[in-house]
Amino acid sequence: MTDRDDHISRQRFMEELRRYRKGSVSRRHFLGVTGLGLATVALGQGLGPRRAWAQEGIGDRVAIATWPNYHDPADFDAFTQATGAYVDVSVFGSNEEMLAKLQAGGSGWDVFVPTNYTITTYVSEDIIEPLDLAKIPNYDPASFDPRFAEAGTVDGKVYAVSKNWGTTGYAVNTTHAGDRQMTTWKDFWDRTKEDFSGRTMVHDYQLTTIGNALKYFGYSFNSVDPKELADAEKLLLEVKPHLFAISSDYQPSMRPGDAWMSMCWTGDASQLHRDIPEIAYVLGREGGEIWSDFYAVPKDAPHREAGYALINFLLDPQVNAREALFHGYPVADKRVNALLPPEVLNDPILYPAAELLAPLEFGAAVTLTDPNRAELMARFKSA
Amino acid sequence: MARRRIGATLLLAPAGLWLLAMLVLPLVVVLVFSFGERGPAGGYAPAFTLANFLNLGSRGAAFRNTLVLAPLGTLACLLIAYPLAYVLAMRVGERWRTVLLVLVIVPFWTSILIRTYAWIFLLGGQGIPKLLGWLGLGQPMLINTPFSVLVGIVYGYLPLMVFPIYVSLERLDKRLLEAADDLGAPPWRSFWQITLPLSLPGVATGCLLVFILLMGEFLIPAMLGGGKVFFVGNALVDLFLQSRNWAFGSAVAMALVVVMLVTVTVYMRLMRRWGGGRDDVALM
């Protein structure tokens, strides 16, 4: 498999992928020239994993809850081809919304994608259970950077395996920024009230929207201090009339130019910058968020076997590398990085400079359940 | 007599049980929850407090938006639907009428979600504003404004307004109009004194239907309001799905139920007084 997939250079693969994404070549051409078509056919004929999965009987469907622009649909198609299980994808813009669905019960999900700071709550709320790692042979703990993978382990048990990591900054369309460089969260909020009025988006997500408002004052991204939260709320309410929208799915507004600036995750920034070079990614100098995402299986997963099969499929370094090329988020798995072309590994959007990374904070568990942060966000939205 | 009563009971049983299980019991749960507290990790924790109701003021903007935009949306639907229903019922031949009626229904064949999504592109910067720009009319920001929400409302709810009005106009005894004509009434007068009063029941039904549904609307403001034009429905979704404060969410839901009961009762009273009176006049 490895050799077959690799029969064109990584450089060439990237070029073909871009041509395909732009629509200048057909899917058939893309699959043919990259060898992916052959690989898919091989999988489809049951030379590889299909037989094993079919014997275990994973069923005909699997449901995953994930984030916007976070998977290559072609990989889900390949999974369906290989296993016969159709992938049902739902997209969420915040961990809080995922938690709410899981708390209410009967989410119907087999796999979901929680962020580092939520895992301990899912464990204490008895929503997820330790993963059966025997069912995820592609998970090799030694290959993962512990900095991004360790949050999946609680009390020595692995509850979640690493998907991607990244940062939360903002994307800005520099054609509208003029001569004044944007480098801080202060710039983000101040200029939203000035020349970006009506053109800025913030996430529909308490962690980042409140966190980055806290950074304006130099407070911790994770603060739950009532006085500091009150300052953040005042800023948010002041800025609200100047916002274009409150949404975690900002690409549809950034691409046609309706929005000029948005809070933004690494991968969305690389996707936007790849297609619209004048869109830049800024990490606030004051700090902000660094995060890692995981795959986890809810206790009430209706298609458990299929869920494990999907996680294992997505952690296959070949598949994971294709995913990374598509969504532009860094991976914590060094087996995957070995497959990625150097221009990806040197991309400053994916791998920001050390002095920008240093002040970033991982989200803290307390922010997920803190009633004041939750109510602040709800008040801000309904104001 | 006894047998009759048993028969009536049996006939009512399915609907009664359904309403009990699906409406009354859930409402009781919501009422109980509304006096509770937010759980430590979100959700509901038993308690008895009025704090949730005292906090309702923090959702004032959502209630105001709903109480302004729902009647406004109903009115806009009415102003567009009435002439359409009038033409369908009075001015087109049998064959065309069927075709046009089908055209009114056709949008229902696709999910409202997809149809509303289309408006995001139509009202976005690359859509209608760009067209207006070419025509030299400036490039107004349409999407994520109360206006775009109103457009979505009219688009989504128009058929619900057209049909009741159409039915009442279609049933109208055309001989009354001929008689008015014979007696020398100009067209505007026969419209004002005959057609309009006789179609009021349809207008009242359509308005009630659209208004009640709009009071609970959340999808259209969420998609075309960019999270900025907030209805009570959106506040509820937020309280249950983001901040996970089921207790406060239940209090807001109860408040919405009360606001709806009051407005609908007042509306029906007014309709009975005005419409009923005119109905009698027209029938004589």
Q: How would you briefly describe this protein structure?
A:
Chain B: Pfam families: BPD_transp_1. The complex is a heterodimer of chains A (383) and B (284). Chain A has helices spanning 2-5, 10-22, 27-34, 36-44, 49-56, 73-83, 95-104, 119-124, 146-149, 185-193, 206-216, 226-239, 251-254, 266-275, 304-315, 317-327, 334-337, 342-345, 354-357, 365-369, 371-382; strands at residues 61-66, 86-91, 111-112, 153-154, 157-158, 161-173, 200-202, 243-246, 261-265, 279-282, 288-295, 360-361.
Describe this structure in words.
The complex is a heterodimer of chains A (383) and B (284). Chain A has 21 helices and 12 strands. Chain A is an alpha/beta fold and 383 residues long. The N and C termini of chain A lie far apart (55 Å). Chain A has 3 domains: 47 residues, no CATH class; 168 residues, 3-Layer(aba) Sandwich (D-Maltodextrin-Binding Protein, domain 2), CATH 3.40.190.10; 158 residues, D-Maltodextrin-Binding Protein, domain 2 (3-Layer(aba) Sandwich). In chain A, the strands form 3 sheets. In chain A, strands 6, 7, 8, 9, 10, 11 and 12 form a 7-stranded mixed beta sheet that branches. Chain B has a domain of 183 residues: MetI-like (MetI-like fold), CATH 1.10.3720. Helices cover 76% and strands 1% of the residues of chain B. Chain B has a two-stranded antiparallel ribbon with strand order 1-2. In chain B, a hairpin with a 5-residue loop joins strand 1 and strand 2. Chain B is globular. The C terminus of chain B is likely disordered. Chains A and B meet through helix 7, strand 8 and helix 21 of A and helix 11 of B. Chain B: One of its GO terms (cellular component) is plasma membrane.
